[in-house]
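Protein in question quoted for reference:
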Amino acid sequence: MFDALWRQTGLSQPWLGTTVILSIFFAQTIISLPLSIYQTFHVEARFGFNRTTPGLFIVDLCKQFALGLLLGTPLLATILFLMDRAGTNWWLYAFGIFTFYSVLVQWAYPAVFAQWFNKFTPLADGSLQARIQSLLQRCGFKTQGVFTMNGSLRSTHGNAYFTGFGRTKRVVFFDTLIERLTPAEIEGVLAHELGHYRRHHIRNGLILSVVMSFLGFALLGWSTARPEFFQALGVGTASAHAALLLFLLVLAPFTFWLTPIVAWWSRRREFEADEFAAEHASSTELATALTKLYRDNANTLTPDALHSAFYDSHPPALVRIAHMQQLART
């Protein structure tokens, strides 16, 4: 339907394909909007987590849409252009551009695009700042700074993370996290996050992402050269944008079997990060902090074992806390 409608405008490639794909993604957003509203203003509000106002919800939605257009349109148009005019090896050129663009966005996001949604201020607590700087030095981690993010503007959930790479690396604490945890507990949480960096989880994840992107583009290049790819998915008019859209839509169902493998790998990395935290901070304080976060976020402490093994990226709370208690004893 979208393809037929936009063809009537006389747009040429790659703008025709770009417009068709963006229109479908926009339609998907509109379709999922009622569920998002229910999640925010009913489920989250029911448990006392939501602080997002209707006005802020609309503003965030508009910003997300604008950011998607700003970042997605040039990349999408470039890939479609290559699919149409770069010959049989188009997928190799597209993979290179996609990889470069992804790294560029990850580098720029903390300092540029994240500011669209939240306010980041340097950590004001002098004693906590000194404690964190000491931890960063012990771990050999150089950062652009330690910042507090106004997460309380939208939710009472707390979190901490570091983002970016190179000179744009920064440590970020939700203001809700700082309000609830003691300095020693915050240090334990940060030591865990730094463990992901020092145990090369970030680097390995990036390498895996590049490898998977390469395989994905290679598979897309192989599929689009075969008419049966379009016939099997019910597309009468073959085109570059139809191939790309079909591939994106069917990728998740066909890779579903990877879910438990990815979850297992992620849980293993969480244990490694906890072990790193035990070496450079207090595992007891980290266990206490996690207990508070699980309680405050209303997370279940006893998830179904089979469901957790298949889907969960983090170990069950009781298993993880028992592991940290063992680390404290040894």
Remarks:
- The mean pLDDT is 86.
